[in-house]
Amino acid sequence: MIKVVRGNPTPEELAAALAVVQARAAATAAAAASGPGPAVPEGWSDPSRIARSARPGPGPRAWARSYWPA
Which of 41, 44, 67 is closest to 56 using CA atoms? Predict the structure, then answer.
């Protein structure tokens, strides 16, 4: 049930708003009926996996070790 709480919409404005709500509900129902959602990428393809390891500390040639952690 939809209720206008504030304002005085014209019949055309109300029909347009209801059309948007109905289209959104239909799209959601169709997506749920089509099956499972998108597949979750596997961990090896996650670019943040490189950032999970500890960064090298300061010292000689630390810049060379900063690209690929050991």
Answer: 67
> Would you say the pTM of this structure is higher than 0.85?
no
| Rounded-to-integer distance, Cα 14 and Cα 8, Å | 9
How much is the mean pLDDT over the chain? Answer: 79
Q: How far lies 32's CA from each of 19, 26, 57, in Å?
A: 20, 10, 49
At 43, which amino acid appears? G
* Structural contact between residues 70 and 54, judged by C-beta atoms closer than 8 angstroms: no
Under DSSP, the state recorded for 70 is: -
Tokens linked to 3: 């209720």
